[in-house]
Design brief:
The protein has 285 residues and is of the alpha/beta class. The protein is 40% helix and 20% strand. Strands 1-4-3-2-5-6 form a 6-stranded parallel sheet, sandwiched between helices. A 3-stranded antiparallel sheet has the order 7-8-9, with helices on one face.
Length: 285
């Protein structure tokens, strides 16, 4: 595996893969890799002739400088994990390499980028689209892999791909969880042992709500999740929305969509760590 730091090096390496007739998979990450990322990389390695993993904490998608400052950086550990899985390239550029000049491009894909995270993190999805579009233009992958823990992000990226007409496939991959149900996240490393224990109530409430929903209204189910999580000392729900899985529009009744997903963001701990998770109530067969 090669660790590359410049766009020029990356383009040259990808060009070689393509000249050999290889399909190229891209796994965009912000580093601090865990088993969730590993599952994406494994799938790309299995489905493509070459796999590029990016490891870059993108500053333009952070609307809170303190959040950016405390985001974990673990490049050495990341490179060992990526290499052990069989990826071909780990792309770890400096900020100045990706943004030699301020990126003034504006992406807008309502309603997908306006609701939930879009309401509480203004500019976040514009930053996501800026960096992901840069990676798409540099790598020109055949497939790009994203985890469904960031469910809204996938919807926004799909909208961007359609709008920009990028000739690639977006491959959503299931959430990877710890044995106790906690969704894997780079932010979990910021939790104390006690905070991690209480964070389990997020996924437990979501899982329980799937059964609760069978004989309760959508509004009752939404309130059930919020009250369950907020009843735990140290947890505070920022939002919980039950939405159409494609448009991300909030729903009023279970029959309003055949693809229904509940998305939650919760603050955990005294120095709050912002955790996200989701659960599917209805999926298409």
């Amino acid at each position: 595996m090669k660790i590359l730091h410049t766009i020029e090096e990356l383009k040259a390496a990808v060009s070689t893969f393509k000249s050999e007739g290889k399909k190229v998979g891209l796994v965009p990450t912000m580093g601090a890799l865990h088993e969730g990322h590993a599952s994406l990389i494994r799938r790309s390695v299995a489905e493509n002739g070459a796999t590029v993993v990016s490891d870059f904490v993108n500053p333009t998608q952070f609307n809170d400088k303190k959040d950016l400052e405390k985001y974990p950086h673990t490049l050495d550990a990341d490179s060992k994990l990526v290499e052990s899985i069989g990826a071909d390239i780990l792309f770890a550029p400096e900020v100045s390499e990706m943004y030699p000049e301020p990126d003034t491009r504006h992406f807008s894909y309502p309603p997908t980028d306006e609701v939930m995270e879009g309401m509480f993190r203004p500019g976040h999805f514009n930053g996501v689209c800026q960096i992901v579009s840069k990676l798409f233009m540099i790598v020109e992958p055949d497939r790009a892999y994203f985890g469904e823990k960031d469910f809204q992000q996938i919807a926004v990226i799909k909208a961007m791909v359609a709008d920009q007409q990028y000739p690639l496939e977006i491959v959503p991959c299931p959430i990877v969880r710890e044995k106790d149900g906690l969704a894997l996240s780079s932010r979990n490393s910021l939790l104390s042992d006690d905070e991690r224990k209480i964070a389990l109530n997020i996924s437990r409430s979501l899982f329980a709500s799937v059964y609760y929903a069978k004989d309760h209204t959508l509004a009752e189910t939404r309130e059930y999740v919020i009250s369950n999580i907020n009843s735990v000392d140290g947890l505070e729900v920022q939002y919980y929305e039950i939405v159409d899985g494609d448009s991300l529009k909030s729903l009023e009744n279970w029959d309003d969509s055949d693809y229904v997903v509940g998305c939650v963001t919760v603050f955990c701990g005294s120095i709050p760590v912002r955790l996200i998770d989701n659960v599917k109530y209805k999926t298409r067969s």
